[in-house]
Specification:
The two termini are about 10 Å apart. It contains five helices and no strands. Helix content is about 80%, strand content about 0%. The protein is mostly helical and about 140 residues long.
Length: about 140
């Protein structure tokens, strides 16, 4: 007592959804070389290791130029113009690059969310079909 309507639903379900693909690989393969560089820099700069490196660099620079002998000082104490210049250049270069990397990470997060939604819809449809089959099996069992 096969129900042709239910079998068609299964075939239709299988044809409607494609296989689930790894969106991380798809996204990575679509990136241009400069976008990969922006993501690399964003991932490295956004770490506590980089923060501590910058902190130690600045503390070391300031400490040396305050306590070192006068003939070895290369950035006059309490003005630290060279240190300010270096920090400003780093900010000017890193800020736009970080924003590009964060935009790419946001786009990737949107793709992952969309893929997850598609997977959830597919699972819901499959569950509906399974429930329909269970109902039909229960009816067949009760008839016997």
């Amino acid at each position: 007592m096969d129900n042709p309507e239910k079998i068609a639903t299964i075939k239709e379900l299988r044809g409607k959804f494609s296989a689930i693909e790894n969106i991380n690989i798809v996204h990575r393969n679509k990136l241009k070389p400069l976008e990969k560089l922006a993501l690399f820099v964003t991932e490295k700069i956004g770490t506590m290791g980089f923060f501590f490196f910058i902190l130690l660099f600045n503390v070391g620079w300031i400490t040396w130029n305050i306590w070192a002998p006068k003939n070895l000082v290369f950035d006059e104490a309490f003005s630290f113009l060279i240190l300010l210049f270096i920090n400003n250049i780093m900010q000017i270069l890193f800020m736009p690059l970080l924003m590009v990397g964060q935009n790419l990470q946001g786009r990737h997060a949107e793709l992952r969310a969309e893929q997850e939604f598609k997977t959830d819809v597919k699972a819901e449809k499959e569950i509906e079909v399974i429930l329909l089959h269970l109902e039909n099996l229960e009816k067949l069992i009760r008839r016997k």
